Amino acid sequence: MEKALLVGRVIASLNRRGKQIAVIAADEAGRAGGAEEARGAERAEGAGEANQPALCIHLGMTGSVIHHQPPVPAADEKHAHVIWQLDSGHCVYFHDPRRFGGIWCFPRVTDLANGRWGALGEDALTISAATLHDRLQRTDRHLKAALLDQSVIAGLGNIYVDELLFNRELHPMMRASKLKMNQVQMLVDAMRDLLGRAIASGGSSLRNYVDADGQTGGFQFQHLVYGRSGQSCTRCERTLKSKTIAGRTTVYCAGCQKR
Q1: CA 76: distance to chain centroid?
Q2: Which of 228, 258, 256, 223 is nearest to 242 (CA)?
Q3: 188 — phi, psi (to 5°)?
Q4: 3-state secondary structure of 185
Q5: What is the tens place of the pLDDT at every residue in 92-123?
Q6: pTM of the predicted structure, to 2 decimals
Q7: Residue-wise pLDDT tens digits, 175-216
Q8: In what order do the strands lie in the sheet with 91-95?
Q9: Are 2 and 53 in contact (CB under 8 A)?
Q10: What is the rounded CA–CA span in Å between residue 231 and residue 220?
Q11: How far is CA 120 from CA 19, 52, 100, 136, 237, in A?
Q12: End-to-end CA separation in angstroms for the chain
């Protein structure tokens, strides 16, 4: 089933929830209408694509889905774990050097929505301040740990949580439940802006990340705290500190981000 999931089919649409991508497949006859039907797995109920098979891809830390003319470049061949051949003669391959990502197959989009994606919180680009505030009120963990939890909010990783908390002058070790509603609203507004700028810059390429065309991102040149431990704060010039929170290296300014 897994190996034959996309064989003889076309890609009707691509959906996303947090850090995960869904490739929605359709029979050749469904090509014209498939992409016009429900775009998100959450809205797939009752739509034509709800019963179509879906491939879920989680890129992890170093994964990329790359479109290329065959053969796969020699530098990528060792870590090209899955390769799809297209009718055009091109190929698409899943490249993941550190193997933190993965691929899952679902007979229907609804199986994905109710299963793997059912455990995820709302997406960072669409979640409301009221919903996030409610989720944060339910946990007494450090704010950094809560925002990294994909069941609380889907789509934030270590880089962007550090940058976000610095932007809003929030200490990563403050208790998530202590945030007031107006603080969460400002957090959500800053999050939309931050992610929008990161997307426009092609993301952050620190080691292996490239986009579907094999191009590196440029947002790493705009990082204000992430990866800058021991350097001066761009606001107050204090030395940025580093601490491990929820198993992740966290960089912050003790002057700007008071606990």
Answers
A1: 22
A2: 228
A3: -65, -40
A4: helix
A5: 999 898 888 899 999 999 999 999 999 999 99
A6: 0.82
A7: 999 999 999 999 999 999 999 988 887 766 556 666 666 676
A8: 64-68, 91-95, 80-85
A9: no
A10: 15
A11: 10, 21, 18, 15, 38
A12: 52
